TrEMBL record:
Name listed for the protein in its UniProt record: ABC transporter domain-containing protein
InterPro entries, alphabetized: AAA+_ATPase, ABC_transporter-like_ATP-bd, ABC_transporter-like_CS, P-loop_NTPase
SUPFAM superfamilies in UniProt: P-loop containing nucleoside triphosphate hydrolases (SSF52540)
Protein keywords: ATP-binding, Nucleotide-binding, Transport
Species in which this protein is naturally found: Nocardia jinanensis
GO molecular function: ATP binding; ATP hydrolysis activity
Family designation: Belongs to the ABC transporter superfamily.
Classification via Pfam families: ABC_tran
Domain ABC transporter: 2-227
Length: 245
């Protein structure tokens, strides 16, 4: 479980996150949505301990990150496809993370197999496609079989087969009782797999409701999209005219 309570983050004069409170529960997939500049990435980094809160508290499974004797068994992070040494193989990439977390080398092969990278375990990650790097990032998050997972745009770069695979993976992890917090712009996948949806805009919490309630608040052929647009209409920084002239 992830609990965010009254969290704010200031960078100089800029208030990137403003008094945000929400929870992501075990056995559920909570999506964190919002326009560019909403504060989602900053929130993810604070949950991961990569940035300090200016105020408020964040707890994971009832504790702060620094309180865990073995963080890798409690929470896994997939926050970027490019956090790797291009000269390492996929196996080597996971090996140093396993060693840091006190895990045996034998834990690596099952994780690579689960994300579909077992056939390329010995290949340099510098030769990986973006979609393969996304799978490798998810493999990193799965090391240690953590109770909680935080993933930032995990579907980026995946082809259709990859998106279907990711969908089934997330649903399977939630069915195992894990807590998943996923930042995304893919409303189709949110509607298919989401349990709860948290929406931010310009650093503030705009909505925190179940996926079903959010869909019910929408209208037209794409109700989730219409509900999202209505909630965020005053929080979009970049607006351009579309359509044909």
């Amino acid at each position: 479980m992830i609990s965010v309570r009254g969290v704010s983050k200031r960078f100089g004069e800029k208030l990137a996150v403003d008094d945000v409170t929400f929870e992501a529960e075990q056995g559920s997939i909570t999506y964190l949505l919002g326009p560019n500049g909403a504060g989602k990435t900053t929130m993810m980094r604070m949950i991961a301990g990569l940035a300090h809160t200016s105020s408020g508290t964040i707890s994971v499974n009832g504790s702060g990150l620094r309180d865990f004797r073995s963080t890798i068994n409690e929470i896994g992070f997939g926050l970027g496809a490019f956090a790797r040494n291009p000269g390492h193989t996929a196996e080597q990439h996971l090996l140093w993370q396993a060693r840091l977390g006190g895990l045996p080398k034998s834990d690596i092969a099952p994780v690579l197999d689960r994300v579909g990278l077992a056939p390329v375990a010995k290949r340099s990650v510098g030769k990986f496609s973006y979609g393969m790097l996304q799978r490798l990032g998810i493999a990193s998050a799965l090391l240690g079989d953590p109770k909680t997972l935080v993933l930032d745009e995990p579907a980026n770069g995946l082809d259709i087969e990859g998106i279907i695979w990711l969908r089934e993976l997330l649903l399977g992890l939630a069915a195992e009782g894990k807590c998943l917090l996923v930042a995304s712009h893919n409303l189709t996948e949110v509607e298919i797999t989401g349990t709860r949806v948290v929406i931010m805009g310009k650093g503030k919490l705009l909505s925190d409701t179940s996926k079903d309630e959010l869909v019910a608040a929408g209208s037209g052929p794409r109700p989730l999209e219409s509900a999202y647009i209505e909630i965020t209409e005053n929080s979009v920084e970049y607006v351009a005219a579309g359509g044909a002239k």
